[in-house]
Amino acid sequence: MNLHHKPDAAPFLLREDADGIATLTLNRSPSRNPLSEGMLAALSEAFATIAGDRSVRVVILAADGPVFSAGHDLKEMSAHRADSDRGRAYFKDVLGRCSAMMQQITALPQPVIAAVEGTATAAGCQLVATCDLAVAGDGARFCTPGVHIGLFCSTPMVALSRNLSAKHAMEMLLLGEMVPADEAMRMGLVNRVVPAGEAPGEARRLAAVIASKSPATVKIGKRAFYEQREMSLAAAYDHASAVMVENMLARDAEEGIGAFMEKRQPVWRGE
What is the pLDDT of residue 5? Predict the structure, then answer.
C-alpha cells in the first residue's frame, strides 16, 4: 500500500501488513528520509488509519537506505526565510505538525517499534525515541547535532529526556556527537542491538510476541504507561489502580486468568 504518492514521484511511505503487524518504511532514501512536509503528512495519515484498524496489533517503523532519518528538511525550512515574517509562521506550523505526529505515536493503541539501520539524527533521533521500542543494527548511530549549526535540538529533547537519564540526554544535546548503537542501548535509547541488517527481523520477532497478546490489554497498558509517567507518585498509583480495576473486569483478563488457572491457552477477543 502506498501513501501520499504523486504520479511522478515515489511514495513517501510504504506500508506492508502481515500477521497483525503493519510495517511502515520511510521511502526517501536519496534525500536521507527527512521529516519533510510530505513525509509528516504521510506518517500522520498512516497513524490515523492504523489507530482505528483492529487488525493491526503492532507497528514497525523502518527506513529505506543507509539513513533512517536525517530529521527536518532544512532546505525546505530555509526557503521560507524569504517570507515576510522571515519564516516564523511556517516554522511554527511545521514544528507543530511534527510534534502532533510524534504524539500520535504515543497515543496510538498499538505499540510502535523502530527498526533502525544507519543514522538517525535530530528529529530522526526524536522519532526513534518516541517509538515504544527500538531495535538497532550494530552500525546504527544516533545524534542530536543541532548545537553545531546554532539550532539546539529542543523538540528532539522532549522525547530524549523521557527516554534517557538527564545526564545522558544533556550529553547528546550539548555535544552533538554521534552515539554508536551499543552506547545508545546503554543509554536507554534502544532496546536491542543486532548485527547490521537484522534490525527489521528482530523488530518482527518482538512484534510477533506482542501480537500474540490480548490487543485490548496492550492498548490499556500502553495508554496507562504514558499517562502515569506525567503524574506525581501518589496520583500515578491512584490512576494505575483505577486502570487495573477496569482491566480486571475486561473479558480478556477474565479469559486470561481463567486459562492460566486451567493450564490452557487463552482465546483473546480484544475486549
Answer: 47
For the chain, the helix, strand and coil percentages under 3-state DSSP, each to the nearest 5: 50, 15, 30
Nearest alpha-carbon partner for 105 in 195, 270, 222, 3: 222
The SS3 of residue 46 is helix
**28 phi and psi, to 5 degrees?**
-130, 50
Angle at the Cα of 200 (from 42 to 146), degrees rounded to 5?
60
Cα(77)–Cα(37) distance, rounded to whole angstroms? 10
| Rounded alpha-carbon distances, angstroms, from residue 123 to 7, 82, 97, 119, 195 | 28, 23, 12, 12, 25
Is residue 156 a contact partner of residue 126, using CB atoms and an 8 Å limit?
yes
Alpha carbons 238 and 226: distance in angstroms, whole number:
14
pTM of the predicted protein model: 0.94
Q: What is the pLDDT of residue 4?
A: 53
Phi, psi of 57 (to 5 degrees): -100, -35
**pLDDT under 50: residue ranges of the chain:** 5-8
| Contact (CB, 8 A) for 97 and 85 | no
Which domains does the chain carry?
2-211 (3.90.226.10), 215-261 (1.10.12)
